[in-house]
Amino acid sequence: MSALKLDKARMSVIASVLVLFIFSCGALGGANSAQQPVRARNVVLIIGDAGGIPALHAGSLYHHNKPNGLFLQTLPQIALMDSSAADAWVTDSAAGISAIVTGQKTNNGVLSQAPNAVRGKQDGTILKTILEYAEEHGLSTGVMTNVPATDATAAGCYAHVNDRSQTAEIIKHLLAPRAGDGVDVLIGAGRQRIMDAVQAAGIDLGAELQKRGYRFYAKPEEAVTSNGRTVALFDTMDFDLPAQVTNTVKTLSRNPKGYFLMVECDVHTDKLKIGLDHVAVLDQIVRQIVEGAGEDTLVIFCADHSFDIRVRGGKPGQPLLEGNESAGGAKPFIRVDNGHTGEQVLVAAKGPGAEKIHGFIANNDLFGIMLAAYGWKPSEAPKEISQR
Ligand SMILES: [Zn+2]
């Protein structure tokens, strides 16, 4: 009996090895025949903040006078993504980015901590972000946004706080990374607010950044030629984000191991014309990333949540906002109610791993899709803040 058992055990080992061998051959064969790498060397996550389908649709009508006119609407893989938070059907940007980059939904207001966090009161379990995985694996990393660099979507990639409004604490996390040497390129707006917050907390940000090998910029025209570790905080959101993205990709690409980059373009449409103009900027960023990226780059576009904007009128050939200007309080072509909404948002993707973007998924599925695209597995139990 024992000999038979041994044989069985041995046979099952041989069978497993054989299955593994056949599987790897199949994977390699697939790669060769399709001339596409199985794994992604780079992942670029582009987030249209509040860029749900209604905002994208209005942006297409406004800029191209036709539906489906955006470049991002040509991406080969799409899915509809539930954007809800752990504690609410309608998410804010904090819980939104946390789910996307950690794989776990959390409470509104909380950044990359589990839902045992109480907003503004109590820390929860630390959730490791895809950026931290990338740092651990020796990749270069970047976080870019046209809103303040400590606002929720950017901060959720590199900080773990129980309230998104804790600006100084968020900067402390930037300066004391939990993985690798932390974010290599951080570019965004909000300079005055951030400088005020760190000053009040007794942090000499310029000196601290210099110690960690960063160049610290205040002017877009200077940051756009930077070629190393960079923190750039601009006074306003009116800078050329696509130009900064081009330069950052050039910088991050120097790492042969690859990179992770998150780019946020805010497209909140409460200020309608500004919001719709930003849809064009967002679309330009998606286009230049997709057209410039090699076959080994997974590019994912998604919104973190939708927004209450509705197209209710207009026709081909007629400027979309004309109907709003002439309506005089009657029925405008576009109706905007200032608020996030809870319906599914678009995810669109291209590159290795993009095939998993289909059907109905949830915001916290994207983390696993990105991790698998790199060929990594989830590691280590999450640590409590007290153990940092
Ligand atoms: Zn948002």
Descriptive account of the structure:
It is globular and about 55 Å long. The protein has a single domain, classed as Alkaline Phosphatase, subunit A. It has 13 helices and twelve strands. The protein starts with a helix and ends in a 14-residue tail after the last helix. With 388 residues, it is of the alpha/beta class. A ten-stranded mixed beta sheet has the order 5-6-4-3-7-1-8-11-2-12, sandwiched between helices. Strands 9-10 form a two-stranded antiparallel sheet. Helices cover 38% and strands 19% of the residues. Helix 2 (53-64) packs across helix 11, helix 3 packs parallel to helix 5 and helix 10 packs parallel to helix 11. Mean pLDDT is 90; it is low at 1-6, 18-33 and 381-388. The structure holds zinc ion (ZN). Zinc ion is lined by residues 49-50, 93, 96, 304-305.
The separation of the N and C termini measures 52 Å
- What is the CATH architecture assignment? 3-Layer(aba) Sandwich
- How many distinct domains? 1
Helix content: 25-40%
Question: What is the fold-level CATH name, i.e. the topology?
Answer: Alkaline Phosphatase, subunit A
* CATH homologous superfamily title: Alkaline Phosphatase, subunit A
Beta strands, count: 12
Shape: globular
Strand order in the largest sheet: 5-6-4-3-7-1-8-11-2-12
Largest sheet: 10 strands, mixed
Can you tell me the CATH class?
Alpha Beta
